[in-house]
Amino acid sequence: MNKQDINPLEDTESEAALAYAQERRENIRTFVRTNPDYYIRNFDKIGASSRFTPTFNLMAGLFGPIWFGARGLWSWALPFLILEALAFVQIARGLFGDLAAEAMARIASIEGTLELRRQQLAAAIENNSDRVDAFKRTVDSLEANIDGIRDEAVALAAQGPWIVLTGVIILILAKFAQATVANWALEARFSDWLSDRSIRSGLPSAEIVFSAIFMILIVTTAMVHYSFPGRFSLLSAFPTDPDIRLTSIAWVEEFIAFCVRNSEAFFEALTFGIRSLLDALEVILVQTPWIVIASLIVLLTWLTAGIRTAIYSGAFLAYMGLLGFWEAAMTTLALLGTAACLSIAIGIPLGMFAARRPRFYAFIQPIMDFMQTMPAFVFMVPVIAFFGVGKPAAVVVTMIFGGTPVVRLTVLGLRGVPESVREAAISFGANKWYLLTKVDLPLASPSIRAGINQTIMLSLAMVVVASLIGAKGLGEDVLEALQYANVGQGILAGFSILFCAMILDRIVQGARK
Rounded distance, CA 227 to CA 234, Å? Predict the structure, then answer.
């Protein structure tokens, strides 16, 4: 071939490919640092296909989770650690464990009862009692039971070799899986390392020592505990002292008592405000003629969600009225309305304030996590201490449980407003108030309305729980049904709560659409 026929472009591409391959090999050497030629061959093989390419890494298979942990692949190390721990526990149980220990303990317990019954039988025979036959049957039954358990203990003891074999099979499968996926997992980490050099590479001695100590400690502890149950009390029960708990309880009670004594006026004023709003809503919903309230609800549903939803709402209201749940349902809506109105009135401004202040939101986020994750029965105790038993306490409990979604979704909606839109408004001379009311809030309104909907739904979920501390309404009917096992009343009242939730959800969602 004539030199003039050589394409300069192809020559340039081949040189670039060689340079890239050389650079990749150097990067692999820098990343793995041990046995680089082996990893270069396997990484090239894995990188040549988009699918999973199995290879075999002997060191990963031998050392298992220790290898994965030392390489920084903890997402692989922990599952394999669980598998190997299970395998070693099975092997140790089969070789050294007392498999019949539980059965022998049951036999010892029954033998104590059997000895007592034999003494009673001997006394009955001596006294010519008419209960001799009953005692004989009891003794015969206990002896037969002991024989059955003893046979079970023998069968359990004979299972040792099979348990060992099961552990060996699990261990072999785990080792094979580790050896097969090791290079593939390490190549994926190498790809991440190429774009982020802060990712740890190589095999640091400190990581090897930490991984080995951690894995050996976990596996050894599990083996000892399951092979010799009850032998080491430190492994069976957490080392503690009952006085620590009693002292902690006393400190908490003293703190709550101190807060109640020094904030009585504040909580009385807060209770008065909650009760005033609650009484006003009860006057509107409960004392107003039912036909007025029903008409307003149907009309509101029609305006927000359409005629079909309005018909369904009318049917739901008729269900509650015909079955005698009307007054209880309106009381529930008054309680829910008070809690939801206060939650929304506090949550939306708080979310607006936190949306542009990341530090403040980072401060209140753990508080909101606590409010959502703590069981309602736990924070119900201090609420009763401050507010007493009754509807105001139920409103506060409902607010604590259901008030956080509106804050979170308000922050999410406002942070989701495109910066380009805000910058355009600012460039046309928009001030802060105009930017908030005409740009931020309208664009964030779908998220804010979703937060309002979630707050209402979570508040309604507290109806039954709130009835435990004096809240009336449908929750009281469900609670009474639970106490007296009245299935029919509980189901009918539950459907009333469901229908209230559906009406409110359709109103809010319809307005959002």
Answer: 15
78 pLDDT higher than 70: yes
Q: Do you know the residue count of the chain?
A: 513
- Output the CA–CA distances (angstroms, integers) from residue 467 to 323, 328, 454, 462, 473, in the order listed: 20, 12, 21, 9, 8
Asked if 256 and 385 count as a contact pair (C-beta separation under 8 A), the reply is yes
Q: Report the alpha-carbon distance of residue 385 to residue 259 in Å, rounded.
A: 10
Distance (Å, whole) CA 297 – CA 291: 10
323-378 residue pLDDT tens:
888 888 888 888 887 888 888 889 899 999 998 888 999 999 888 888 888 877 78
Exposed (0-12), middle (13-18) or buried (19+): which is 388, by Cβ within 10 Å?
Answer: middle
Q: Which amino acid is at 138?
A: T
Residue 190 lies inside a defined structural domain of this protein: yes
Contacts 24+ apart (CB under 8 A), 7-11: none
Joined together, the tokens standing for residue 452 give 């309002």
| Domain identity same for 215 and 338 | no
Per-residue pLDDT reduced to its tens digit, 44-61: 888 888 788 889 999 999
Give me the number of domains the chain comprises: 3
Asked whether 461 and 430 are in contact (CB, 8 A), the reply is no
Give the CA count within 13 Å in the CB-facing half-sphere of 236: 8
Q: Could you tell me which residues come within 8 angstroms of residue 392 by beta carbon, excluding any fewer than 6 positions away?
A: 270, 271, 274, 275, 278
Please state, as a whole number, how many other Cβ atoms lie within 10 Å of the Cβ of residue 365. 15
Residue type, 420: S
Are the C-beta atoms of 354 and 495 separated by less than 8 Å? no
Check if the beta carbon of residue 406 is closer than 8 Å to that of residue 342.
Answer: no
Task: Decide if 343 contacts 402 (C-beta within 8 A).
Answer: yes
Q: Which residues contact 338 (CB under 8 A, 6 or more apart)?
A: 274, 277, 278, 281, 395
Query: Both 399 and 498 in a single domain?
Result: yes
Q: Which of 397, 404, 405, 385 is nearest to 465 (CA)?
A: 397
291, 298 Cβ separation under 8 angstroms = no
Residue for token digits 């909907």? 453
In a domain, 8, yes or no: no
